Amino acid sequence: MPIYKNELERFVCEKCYNDLCGPLAAWISENPHSLRNRGTSVRRPASASLQRMLLEFTTNVNIIGDVISFDAVTSCEIELEGEDDGDWQVDTVQQWYRCCCSVTVDEAVRGFAVHDIKTYSRASRSTHYGAADGNLVPLISASNFEAEATRFLAEFFPETLETPMPVPIDDIVREKMGLTLIKNGCLADNLRILGQICFSPGKAMVYDFMGVGTEEVIVSRGTILTDEMTFWERNLGCLNNTVAHEAYHWYRHRVYAAVQSVLRGGETIAYRCPAKPAMPYGSGDPSEWSDEERMEWQANNIAPRILMPARMFRQKAEDFMFQYGYCLNENEKPAILKRAITALADFFRVSKQSAKIRMRELGYIGTTADEDYGNGDPFFTQITQRDAFYEYCDNSTFRSVIDSGLFHYVDSRYIIDDEKYIRSNASGSYELTSYALNHLDECALRFTYRRVEMKSHGQFHKDTFHRTNKNAYEKLPSYDSDDNTAVIDIAEELRRNRDLFEQEYTAYTEYSPSFYEKADALMKQRNWYPATFRDKTLLSDLERSRYLAERSKPPSLPKAMSICIGLDVDPQISEDLLATAGYKLSPAREHQAYRFALHHYRGRIDECNDFLADRGVKPLGSQSR
């Protein structure tokens, strides 16, 4: 019996061998001169025929919907015939080929196609969206959880990414995804099983309400079952999370199950997701997890992010914290946080535990490595955008550090701007590397507290958090250079040692002094198209036409800011661009907000506009989303 390295290779050999071999044989026959025929007596082949094909391995596996695309690398024994020095010669050669293939697998295997055939040479693995391993398990790291949840919502209910609202997960499952949702019946006694997704038609076993008798229920492919006791014994949030969990299994894991069913005659029908997993997903050595454990880990972590989209959750969290007076009542902060968590859980229809975890993930509550406000540790690294803006305006030393471009605001922390600590994920957002998360003392700025009389905050602090109780005091994060000497030294040394920024900036400044020509060069470098210009800057097509045609005078400051934010360049380059257009950012409130945005919202025009609107500054761009 053949031994296969993974499930995809077994699938190709057992179910698609002839579909792969046929096109390859035809291509070889049509291209005899493409063969590397060194060492053979047939130097000018007139014909070539495939005698034997062996699948060596598969690579660049990608799954979108029900379609698997991959490269099949094959070794072939080929017979050559041709005339050489007046004699007709016959010989065989060995040749490897890379065949770019795709196949649809749902309830059947169909549509196998070979799109391209090339003589094999080593190539780097692809890392684009949909990448999977040889067993057809999606390659999704913890750093991509947010992007996965965002992509799911963008496809099925994009409104939830623009306006805070409870995610209508039942409607998404039934109406958008076309699945069947059954909520009556018990899946196990004592709520041991919360949900089940059926990847194939068949029968599902359910208990009666008392958990004694059982019955078989006929289910179609794409049926989600939840235990009806979940709502009564736990809460609506737990039930919604179960539905989102199973929906995500269908969204990203159904091809894995379909191939298992094809290979094993329907043995793999459903995932039954346990209330208490047998193993602690996210702990131990991930290389030792089974395929099912990895997929459970993915669904466990992405389902809550689907129900609580990051940007909308932040907006509601800050609304509730303001509403309950978080910054006005220092002694009541823990109680106010609990109240805000309850309100968030009710609003997004999730459990309080999920809402609390989401608050921690987004920087509102401390972790064991970085405690929240009000705890005993005098130093902390997490700071909200609002508090960071206050300190930026009041503390010239902190402002100089941020303006230096040495640090990038990521995950509510100021992290050294270096690839060792920061990386870009699949959605284009920045995130901390695993090394950075384990070495915050090496790469993150540290803060302590200062006691501030609210009426003395000054012009920069006329914010909605501070419109009442003008005689009150509160504790605000404070930056002290003496507490950050080591981190600053590391950041400066890394900048001296790397030349990437200098190369980019030198090439940039040597270009024509015109704002338009410099911006054009950066747009060309980033492969911008008209639609890219519109999406990245929120400037309309009419504004783009003016940008191209009216070059005798510089653009307005807001329009120049829109372009700088959209280009996602180093803040020093952005300020040089503005200077070329005749603008120098001053200490005025609006200009301080602009400078803060250049450092914190590169390439994120929507979040930039949210920040500006909160500060009372008109949002950028002529469009709204």
Please render the helix and strand layout as text.
Elements: H1 7-15, H2 17-30, E1 47-64, E2 67-84, E3 87-105, E4 109-119, H3 145-156, H4 169-176, E5 180-182, E6 193-198, E7 202-207, E8 214-219, E9 223-226, H5 229-233, H6 236-264, E10 270-274, H7 291-307, H8 310-323, H9 333-348, H10 352-361, H11 385-394, H12 396-403, E11 407-410, E12 413-416, E13 422-424, E14 430-432, H13 434-438, H14 440-443, E15 448-453, E16 473-478, H15 485-497, H16 500-509, H17 515-525, H18 530-537, H19 541-549, H20 557-567, H21 571-580, H22 589-600, H23 605-614
Parallel strand pairs: 5-9
Antiparallel strand pairs: 1-2, 2-3, 3-4, 6-9, 6-10, 7-8, 11-12, 13-14, 15-16
Explain what this protein looks like in three dimensions.
- With 625 residues, this protein is an alpha+beta fold.
- The chain folds into four domains: 7-119; 142-307, no CATH class; 311-486, no CATH class; 499-614, no CATH class.
- It has helices at residues 7-15, 17-30, 145-156, 169-176, 229-233, 236-264, 291-307, 310-323, 333-348, 352-361, 385-394, 396-403, 434-438, 440-443, 485-497, 500-509, 515-525, 530-537, 541-549, 557-567, 571-580, 589-600, 605-614, and strands spanning 47-64, 67-84, 87-105, 109-119, 180-182, 193-198, 202-207, 214-219, 223-226, 270-274, 407-410, 413-416, 422-424, 430-432, 448-453, 473-478.
- The protein has a four-stranded antiparallel sheet with strand order 1-2-3-4. The chain has a four-stranded mixed sheet with strand order 5-9-6-10, with helices on one face.
- Helix 9 (333-348) crosses helix 10, helix 11 (385-394) packs across helix 12 and helix 18 crosses helix 20 (557-567).
- The longest helix has 29 residues, at 236-264.
- It is globular, with a radius of gyration of 29 Å.
- The two termini are 58 Å apart.
